[in-house]
Structure formats: structure tokens, C-alpha cells
Amino acid sequence: MSNDSLTTAAPAIDSTFENVWDELVWRGLVHVSTDPEALRALLAGPAITYYCGFDPTAPSLHLGNLVQLLTLRRIQLAGHKPLGLVGGSTGLIGDPRPTAERTLNTRETVEEWVGRLRAQVERFLSFDGDNAARIVNNLDWTAPMSAIDFLREIGKHYRVGTMLKKDAVAARLNSDAGISYTEFSYQILQGLDYLELHRQYDCVLQTGGSDQWGNLTSGTDLIHRVEGASVHAIGTPLITNSDGTKFGKSEGNAIWLDADMCSPYRMYQFWLGTADADVIDRLKVFTFLSRAEIEEYAALVEAEPFRRAAQKRLALEVVATVHGIDATAAAIAASEALFGQGDLASLDAATLRTALEELPHAQVSAGSSVVDALVATELVSSASEARRAIAQGGVSVDGERVESDDATVPLGLPGGVSVLRRGKKTLAGLLPA
Length: 433
Description:
CATH superfamily of the largest domain: HUPs
Shape: elongated
Strand order of the largest sheet: 1-6-5-2-3-4
Strand content: 5-15%
Number of domains: 3
Number of strands: 13
Radius of gyration: 25 Å
Distance between the termini: 29 Å
CATH class of the largest domain: Alpha Beta
Low-confidence stretches: none
CATH architecture of the largest domain: 3-Layer(aba) Sandwich
Helix content: 40-55%
Mean pLDDT: 94
Number of helices: 20
Largest sheet: 6 strands, mixed
């Protein structure tokens, strides 16, 4: 697919909204907030500084983080100044999970992941102009602080009873695992972050997932006690599918933003599989399409759901935002060719191999039997079933029908691979042994 034939929405706020706050609300990005009217006025006024934090508890961010990255960008497009915080110190601790204690990563691992996440965050923000973004690391202000200073200057402002009521802490206290003092203290560290950013940059707004609300308000409360100032927080909703299943998982694996951990092809297929009931909400949250454009897709979902027009646009927009237009074009070309709408031989070798690795696949040698390949990829359960499928004309390799059960695997596509097909839609990849 030619890059010239792909058109994506430029990052922009929708001018049909009076205020970026109104657009955030329309897109479903405000689940909870400190003071809606005050926030609406704040975001309509002169440029403010705001932030969102990302902890390096994995070597990559994922789709849940993408909600925050795009929210940061939307507010920046309205003229405000973003701080992207990568948690070099909070990443050493880990936000309490609902069920069990985190395994602490080494300092070296966390430091490496800080660099990787910083590079990812930087891709979504602008570092030019009067409202240029800035990346900060909370290790810069926590590392020099002694335990005594931390307890005297920060810890004294926290009440244990209040801390125990935070959802994440309460869930752990009611579990068999309990909670360590280390993870119990996480909310204090996040409160300290907001206080430090307020002091250094006059930061007055923090965004985060609604499951982080206890940590977000830890900061607003601390600033009110220490500085006597009122600051704000926005909690975005946790994205779930209409059927109640967890969003952002594909066959049990997270959809990561790192191409080495989740290929552009796999990400494209994930979005392409969005249910009709979810796709309009996804367009609102994960793309910069305007309200008018999204309403047009809503009408298409109602009138012509079989065309999957909204899903195709969603997949195009998100993959292009995360991985760029070249990788997106390659993923679309591979998707179309695999399902009979393009030339397999013209595909990029790396993209084709990645796509085949997402299918049922097996490693075989060139010249090996197609019958054996059918069994190895589990497209059939036995050699006799493979021979019957071939005799019925239902098997092809690299787009060519297999006429005889003596046929062999060519591995002649770019990268030395082949595509095995049974029937119209059941595919498998054949990779070199």
C-alpha cells in the first residue's frame, strides 16, 4: 500500500467546542475530577502547567498509558504546558496492585526502563513553542532527600486513617497478601511529586487513570496543606469493552507501544477487531478525528456495519500515531495481501514475517511436504485429513492452489517464508527451520 493513499487526522483540538474541557468531556475522558466548573474556567484561561506520571514497571508503555499520552497532547494543543513525568523513584517502589505485592526490580533495570519510557513519552508531545513540553524524573528530588527529612517534611502531613481508605490500599488490606509499608507509602511519594512540580513549575493540574484517584488526590491534599493552594486533578475512565472484558489485551498479552514487544501488524489487527458497540467510543478516545467525522462513522456503523469502515479508520489512526505512517502502510499491505487483496511477493520481509508469527505457524524446510505442513500448523488434525483437503481443492500455498498431496513448500516469499491457507479464511505461516 502506498503511503500517499493513507490520510490521517492531524493532531488538533476540535474548534466546534468552546473549550478543551468540553471536548475532553465529550470524548468521555473525564470520569472524575476535583471541580468541573473551576477546571473548565482554568483550561479556558491563560496557559497552565499540568502533568501526568508514568512508572517504569515494564520496559514499555501500553494502551492504557496511551489514553494519558493523548490526553496530555490534547491539552497541550489547547495552549497549555505539559510535564511528562517518568518515575525513576516511584518505579523502584511500584503502585500497589489490587491483589499482590510487586516484585521489586533492580535499580539498573529501572534506570534502563526510565530511558525507554522517556523516549516513548517524547514521541507524543511537542517540544517547540511557548508551551513546549518538558520531561522530568522524580528521582531528581527524592534521591537527595533523607528518610528523616521525608518523614518530617512530607510524612507529617498524612493521616494513616485517610491513607487506609484509599481504594488500592483497602483492597490489599482485605486480601490474603496484605500490603507492605513500602507500597503503602507509594501515595506519599506521588503526593510529593505534585508538590515538587507545583513549587518548581507552578503545576496546577494532574491527569491519570481513575484507578489512580487516591494517588492523584494525595497530591492535591498535600499542596493544600503545605502551600495553602488549590490545585486540580482529572481521572480518566478505565477503558473496558462493552461485553465487560478487559480492554487492551489480545490473547492474554498486553498491547505494548514498543514495536519489538507488539508489532504494528499485531496492533493493527487488534484495533481492526474492535466490536461495533465499542468502536465509536474508541474513535473518541484514541484519535484526533473531529466530532463531525466521528458522527459520520457512527452513522456508517449503523447503516453498513459489514464494511467495518470505522474499525479500519480507527486502526489506521492509532497505529500511525504510535508507529508512524510507513509502518502502518506496511501493516495494512500485509493484512490485505494475507486475505487475498494484495500481492504477497511485494511485501516487506520483516513485516510479512511478523504477520505470520501472529498466525498459527510452524518452522519447516524448503521442499518439505505440504501435507506435513498442514499437520504441523494444526490446520488439520492428521495427514489423511490433509490429503482430503488437498483433493477437495481447499488448500493453497502463497496464493497458488495445491493440486497434489505430493506438493512441497517453496518458502519463496520475501524473507524465505510461505503462507499456507485452508479454505477461504484459515491461514498459517511457514517459517524457515
